[in-house]
Design a protein that fits this description.
three-stranded antiparallel beta sheet, 71% helix, 390 residues, two-stranded parallel sheet, elongated, 14 helices, mainly alpha
């Protein structure tokens, strides 16, 4: 059963036009017949003017789905409480009137008792064992003070039942707490009454009271059960069509804000990268400029007639051109050393001058000059070559 459609069928649709433009677009569509507004209870679009309008805070709180079923059950309990209040209220009034005119009522009872007895016998009831007649006769024996207390107790119980009924019918949170506490207080007495004697009436009253207490505690999350009031209100908000649209709009705004923040971060990162790239380009340009300036300076120094490089080359040329210069002196010294190496070693005493005066062979090139001299010196020093003494 769709309790939302049942509620709209019984009480009509509930439409609302919020003042906020974006939320207003979400709750309305344009049809050929005109503007249609979404019902906050069943969710269908209804053509015509909205039931109410204003800011979101002024939107009506609409129960739908399981909450409508819960409201129906609570109102059934409220009707049962109203019936109890009527019965006990009537009993309190009867006891009070009886205490004021007990004598006249007793006389009237005695006068009507024979006719009542005969009627009950004809209906098949045993008058001698009737609990109703025994209760009435016992009431005639009570004193006025006791009757006054009984009337006051019955009246107080009727008032309690009326408060419970009003709170449950209006679906108020305080009514749920009050009904649960008041009903729980009477359960121990009902259990004691059932231990004394089990009747259908007592059993029915006990079952109704226990069912009401359990239902209120579990479904309405009283006294912190299943998350308490916060969880209960969160479930109501999650079932609300208007709250669902508000949450969806907030989620879209959050998504747009996040995308804008990401775009801004990306733009900042790109600007930083461009700035870093520009700084590197500038550094490279500065290094190239410095290198070009150094090359230009070196070229200028080399091109100057009296510069250091030109002076160095001129000095080297002059030294090479001088007759007694370092280069010439070096070559002369090398020639003298080679001539000294080519001279024969002095002859030993007693040797013929003829060998010493023999012509020497032509000198080998400078590279083989030194080994030939060594061989000649060797032959001179050998004993076999020396002449015999004359």
């Amino acid at each position: 059963m769709d309790w939302s459609l049942l509620g709209c069928g019984a009480n009509g649709h509930v439409t609302f036009a919020p003042d906020e433009p974006e939320l207003r677009e979400r709750l309305s569509v344009t049809a050929r017949e005109g503007a249609a507004w979404r019902c906050l209870r069943c969710g269908t679009f209804v053509i015509g003017e909205p039931t109410s309008s204003g800011p979101v805070s002024a939107a009506p709180r609409v129960r739908r789905g399981k909450e409508l079923r819960s409201a129906f059950i609570l109102r059934l309990f409220a009707v049962e409480r109203f019936l109890r209040a009527i019965v006990f209220g009537a009993l309190a009034i009867a006891i009070w009137r009886f205490s004021l005119s007990r004598l006249s009522i007793e006389a009237a009872y005695d006068q009507m008792l024979p006719a009542v007895r005969s009627l009950l016998r004809e209906l098949g009831f045993n008058v001698n064992h009737s609990r109703l007649l025994g209760l009435i006769q016992h009431a005639f024996k009570l004193n006025p003070h006791t009757l006054g207390l009984l009337a006051l107790a019955a009246g107080a119980y009727a008032v309690i039942e009326i408060i419970e009924a009003v709170g449950l019918w209006l679906l108020k949170r305080w009514g749920e707490y009050f009904a649960m506490i008041a009903t729980s207080i009477g359960i121990p007495y009902e259990i004691y009454d059932l231990t004394a004697k089990v009747t259908w009436l007592r059993l029915l009253a006990f079952t109704i009271n226990v069912a009401l207490v359990v239902y209120l505690v579990v479904t309405k999350r009283l006294f912190g059960v299943r998350g308490g009031k916060k969880a209960y209100e969160a479930r109501l908000r999650s079932a609300s069509i208007l709250q669902a649209q508000i949450d969806a709009l907030a989620a879209e705004e959050a998504t747009r804000a996040e995308e804008a923040a990401q775009a801004e971060e990306a733009a900042q990162a790109e600007e930083a990268a461009q700035a870093e790239e520009a700084a590197q380009v500038e550094k490279t340009a500065q290094a190239d400029g410095a290198a070009q300036a150094g090359k230009t300076a070196q070229t200028k120094e080399a091109a100057q007639p009296g510069g250091p490089a030109q002076a160095g080359k001129t000095a080297q040329t002059e030294e090479a051109a001088q007759p007694g210069g370092p280069a010439k002196a070096g070559k002369t010294a090398q020639a003298e050393e080679a001539a000294q190496a080519d001279e024969p070693a002095p002859a030993a005493p007693g040797t013929h001058r003829s060998e010493a005066s023999q012509p020497r062979p032509a000198r080998a090139p400078a590279q083989t000059e030194q080994p030939a001299t060594a061989q000649t010196a060797g032959r001179t020093d050998q004993p076999g070559d020396m002449p015999a003494p004359g």
